[in-house]
Amino acid sequence: MYQIILASGSPRRKELLEQIGVKFTVDPSTCKERISDTDPIKVVVDLSFQKACDVARRYENTIIIGSDTIVSKEKQILGKPKNEEDAYRMLKLLQGDTHQVYTGVTVIDKQKGEYQVYSFYSVTDVSFYSMTDEEIYSYINTKEPMDKAGAYGIQGKSAVYIKEIKGDYNTVVGLPVAMLYQTLLNNGINLLA
Ligand SMILES: Cc1cn([C@H]2C[C@H](O)[C@@H](COP(=O)(O)OP(=O)(O)OP(=O)(O)O)O2)c(=O)[nH]c1=O
């Protein structure tokens, strides 16, 4: 029986872990997120590692889960919009086309002072229908974009603009729970035990 900590303030990640039946507590990381690379895989793995490490320092005999999600479109990396103008820029870029959503996960298994670190990522293609400027502005007015990578929430009101996805839906929402569960199981850790 492990104590499991989700090192995230994201309500979506909490819901996804609850959905699969994991017993855990939430203790969000407070480290500043800086995108310091142009490779989306490196960015999400590195940020998930930083978040997990930040929280792992405070605990013993626990499993800590950190995660990070970004949107990538033609070599541009989109995090959360800084303001409404930034949200407009992102949605204008994404509408009518396909982009990638990357989620990186780092799990730190800290038992008796020893660390085991598992890092991985998942990527999903998301295709948007075209959006008029009016639709973009009215979506921004819902405030839904403001705390989400790429300025949209597939699980929310933007669902009417999503044409197709290829890959794991939960990767887009912020935590690929199947990959998380299976990766840990392959390493002898059962999150549901
Ligand atoms: C693309 C997309 C992102 N998101 C969310 C998931 C993440 O919460 C957020 C990306 O920001 P993150 O920096 O990955 O996470 P966060 O700041 O919300 O939480 P923490 O750092 O404490 O773990 O965007 C959606 O909810 N739906 C979507 O469709």
TrEMBL record:
A Pfam family reported for this protein in Swiss-Prot or TrEMBL: Maf
Record's subcellular location: Cytoplasm
Entry EC number(s): 3.6.1.9
Sections of the chain in a coiled coil: none
Record's catalysed reaction(s): dTTP + H2O = dTMP + diphosphate + H(+); UTP + H2O = UMP + diphosphate + H(+)
Function: Nucleoside triphosphate pyrophosphatase that hydrolyzes dTTP and UTP. May have a dual role in cell division arrest and in preventing the incorporation of modified nucleotides into cellular nucleic acids.
Similarity-based family: Belongs to the Maf family. YhdE subfamily.
Protein name, UniProt field: dTTP/UTP pyrophosphatase
